[in-house]
Amino acid sequence: MANAALQEIYEALGEDGLRKARWQEKMHIAAMITQILWTAVFALAMIPTGWAAALRDALGGDTTFGALLVILAIMLLNSVFMLPHAWFFGYRVEQILGTNRQSLAGWLLDYFKQGLISLVIFGFFFWGVYLVFRAWPVAWLPALVAVVALLALAIYLAQPLMIRAQVGVGPLEDDELNSRLARIFEKAGFPFGGVGVLKAGEKTSKGNAMLSPKGGKLEVLIFDTLLEEVDPEGIEFVVAHELGHRAHRDWPAMLGLISLLFVVGIALAHAVLVWADGRWGLAGPGDPATLPILMLVLSFWMLAGQVVTNTFMRSREYAADRYALELTGNLPAFERAFVVLAKQNLADPEPPEWVEFWLHNHPSIARRLEAARRVVEEKG
Ligand SMILES: [Zn+2]
Predict the structure, then answer these.
(1) How far is the CA of 63 from the centre of ligand 1 (A)?
(2) Could you tell me the distance, in angstroms and rounded to a whole number, from the CA of residue 345 to the centre of ligand 1?
């Protein structure tokens, strides 16, 4: 049970850290529930009032191009409507936790940039969905699958752009660490695309790392906050873990799973839109004025679907840990890195089981430490 590493994490967190970690968890749950409620309020404000239908008529939403305008207008209204929610859970909560290092103006600018990227990606996605419903009123499923596949591709390609839109990237000054990481890449058989240091420390005290495609190679992107506190062997382990995800193709598998959930969610929404046909001035599934309903159904569905995606991801996390342990053979570095990560990100090492099952895409730290210990024992 409680091994030495776990004990160390509790000590590093302290009473205050543990209290904050548990509060952060509560806020995470509150954010999801209120987001659904907020989306429902938005739909109620737009649909029974006839505003969505009026907006469609004003923007010529029955034409192909007009439909795009209606979609963008509704999405813009929605992101303005969501602003207080995003401010509270994205900014105020981090401020209370003491992890936020950003000014309100800086945060607003980020919210705007992020909103712009998702407006483009999801705007075109929803446009595609409505055009499919118009073109194939009965046999819409095959074309819908194609549109969702395009969305998955767009998200995959936009990932590096999303990161760079948020934080600046600088070079890694530490040559020794650079060659250490180059060696682990070589050992794993991946082309090393260098290391970029994300200047996240200006915005948050939290730490993270990821791999990003760069001209046929893989670039390591590390938060400067992580570099400051995790030792080189720990960084090596974190990178080896990410290589594990690449080796197992977890990211495409995850996108595939989410795409499948999206197709089912939109199919459900289609049924609701058929039912809503003729009410509140709405004109069936091809009518972009129905977007608030579609977004609401999709939100509900994806909230439930989280159980599936998170369960899948947690299993992939164990596999990536095992991969990294086999590649580095360095359990102590893994344990030391976790002490820092738990403290930086205010993670409860042992959250309630139902919370982990429903909400977490990573296993709890206690479980990961235990599983890692088992892997090492197995190998003797
Ligand atoms: Zn992972």
Answers:
(1) 45
(2) 15
φ/ψ of 213, rounded to 5, equals -60, 140
- Residue 1 pLDDT > 50, yes or no? no
Identify the weakest region by mean pLDDT among 142-146, 148-152, 340-344.
340-344
pLDDT band at 94 (very low <50, low <70, confident <90, very high): confident
Q: 170-245, superfamily in CATH?
A: Metalloproteases ("zincins"), catalytic domain (3.30.2010.10)
What pLDDT does 241 receive?
Answer: 94
The pLDDT value recorded for residue 5 is: 80
Q: What is the pLDDT of residues 48-64, one digit of tens each?
A: 999 999 999 999 999 99
**Segments of the chain assigned to CATH 3.30.2010.10:** 170-245
C-alpha of residue 287 to centroid of ligand 1, in Å: 40
Instruction: Give the separation between CA 302 and CA 287, rounded to whole angstroms.
Output: 22
Distance 212 CA to ligand 1 centre (A): 14
Cα of 137 vs centre of ligand 1, distance in Å, is 41
Residue range 170-186: mean pLDDT, rounded: 91
| Per-residue confidence (pLDDT) for residue 207, from 0 to 100 | 77
- 102: closest CA among 138, 93, 74, 128? 93
Count other C-beta atoms under 10 Å from residue 2's C-beta.
12
Residue 150 sits at the vertex; the CA angle it makes with 145 and 152, to the nearest 5 degrees, is 95
If you measure from the C-alpha of residue 210 to the centroid of ligand 1, how many angstroms do you get, rounded to a whole number? 9
For residues 236 and 182, what is the distance between their CA atoms, to the nearest angstrom?
Answer: 10
Measure the CA–CA gap between 79 and 92, rounded to whole angstroms. 18
CA of 285 to the centre of ligand 1 (A): 39
Question: Which of the four pLDDT bands, split at 50, 70 and 90, describes residue 338?
Answer: confident
Can you tell me the distance from the alpha carbon of 264 to that of 301, in angstroms, rounded to the nearest whole number? 9
Q: Which residues are CB-contacts of 267 (< 8 A; sequence separation ≥ 6)? A: 141, 144
- Ligand 1 centre from 272 Cα, in Å? 37
Residue 380's pLDDT is: 64
Give dist(CA 269, CA 263) in Å, integer.
10
* Cβ-contact 241, 257 below 8 angstroms: no
CA distance 263 to 266: 5
- Angstrom distance (rounded) from CA 343 to CA 21: 9
